[in-house]
Amino acid sequence: MAVKEELLKRVIVEQQAFLLSPGELWNREYQPGISVSLENDLIVFLTGVRRSGKSYLLKIVKEIASRQKGLEDRNFLYINFEDERLANIEPNELSGIIELYFRLFTPDFDKKMVLLFDEIQNIPLWHRWINRLFEEKRFKIFITGSNASIIKQEIGRVLTGRSIAIEIFPLSFREYLYYFKNVPPVTEKDFYDVQKRAVIMNAFENYLQAGGFPEFLKTENFQVLQEYFKDIIQKDIIYRYSIRYKKELKEIAKIIISGPGNVLSLKNIASAVGLKNIGTVKNYIEYLQESYLVFGIPLFSPSLKKQIYNPNKYYGIDPGLYRSVSFGLTDNSGPLLENIVFLELKRRLKGIDELFYFKTRTGKEIDFLVTGGGKVHLFQVCYDLGDDATLQREIRASVEAAKELAIREAAILNGNLKDTIERDGITISIIPTWEFLLQFD
Q: How far apart are CA 70 and CA 111, in angstroms?
């Protein structure tokens, strides 16, 4: 069924009103990357979980481009393809949106026009249309999407060499401090100021439980997070992939979110949710990862076969979801701390960097191993190192792993202890996690 022209006009005008609506815009950490991307013609994909601020970032793109390129409001077109009025739009009607935009807003054709398309993966064959627009060389295109697989498939299919992708996460601890605790950008000397240190530490304990979804942080109503969970499951997975075992899918998601850092085999998950087909469990976990709701990391090993056949460790997209969908009633600070460290490492991964977990020959587990640029970094996470036996256990594991990997350093991230320990030629940096989160190196 075709979408009528008059309806399209209303959609365009109403959505432009959203783009141009007044209000203070937050400085997200992605802005330098956005600014750099405006200096080339590449299509920019902003990908990430629902409600992480991707639509908001498109408003930031508009503000940056206005200043950086001297563009007027009429040179920006914003379309949210999740608008139910566009549910039946056909691929051959997409070009009509651009034509109507020209007629309604008469852009300055001597300057670049910026196209901001929200959740475009809902439209069949969207990549062909975007490819044609790219070839016209008069548009700078920004696209958001909540499905990693679809975006990557289309980039690989027709947009290779024509696009870049920026992963968007809920607020980092740095962003949380600034916007919800009114703490200015932190410098290293603030770590040693008693008053500022206390403010940061108290804020971190809140962040550990609440996470970084902006709308939830405004209300602190856990029903908001429960609705996010339902929307992701329903819209990004059940509807898109025609899921047969809906209840079991939700249970798999809850198992992973409720146990951040757990090593989970497909067989054990299948048994826990009552599914006989391990292939179905594998597919469901892939769908959950493609929607950015959960993540899995493999075991590090020089043997690719060993990596493939060992189970992954899993984490959720945000610690706040733990308390909203978890089976448990406790705060579970240790696993949540590990989840936060995982998310921060994901934010920092660049280029060829890869993230794993590691086991020594004697079975000691290291939470995170990061490779890239010919270097290996080890991170162990433990919330409470107050007990000497616990501290010594974590040191022994870190030293053993560093020796096996022929490196000289490792880090133990924890609640509040800070120290540097030399053991058997290995330097162990013991760092409060909140301090690690505020470091940019």
A: 9
**Averaged pLDDT, 163-179:** 94
Cα separation, 100 vs 213, whole angstroms: 35
Under CATH, what is the fold of the domain 5-168? Rossmann fold (3.40.50)
Query: From CA 398, how far away is CA 423, in angstroms rounded?
Result: 10
**Strand 263-264 relative to strand 139-145, pairing:** unpaired
The rounded distance, in Å, linking the Cα atoms of 134 and 162 is 8
Could you tell me if 136 and 44 are in contact, meaning their C-beta atoms sit under 8 angstroms apart? no
Would you state the pLDDT for residue 106? 96
Q: Considering the entire predicted model, what is its pTM?
A: 0.93
Q: How far is the C-alpha of 361 from the C-alpha of 332, rounded, in Å?
A: 29
CB proximity list for 396: less than 8 A, separation 6 or greater: 364
Residues in the chain: 441
What is the DSSP-derived secondary structure letter of residue 44?
A: E
| pLDDT band at residue 155 under the 50/70/90 scheme | low
- d(CA 130, CA 391) in angstroms, rounded, equals 54
Mean pLDDT of 160-176: 92
Task: Report CA 128 to chain centroid distance, whole Å.
Answer: 26
User: Would you give the distance in Å from CA 161 to the centre of its chain?
Assistant: 23
The Cβ-side half-sphere exposure at 286, using a 13 Å CA radius, reads 10
Q: What are the structural domain ranges in the chain?
A: 5-168, 173-217
φ and ψ at 80, to 5 degrees?
-100, 110
The predicted-structure confidence for 96-146, as pLDDT tens digits, reads as follows 999 999 999 999 999 999 999 999 887 888 888 999 999 999 999 999 998
* pLDDT tens digits along 289-328: 999 999 999 999 877 777 777 899 999 999 999 988 886 5
Helices (H), 141-277: 148-157, 173-180, 194-210, 214-219, 222-231, 239-241, 246-258, 266-273
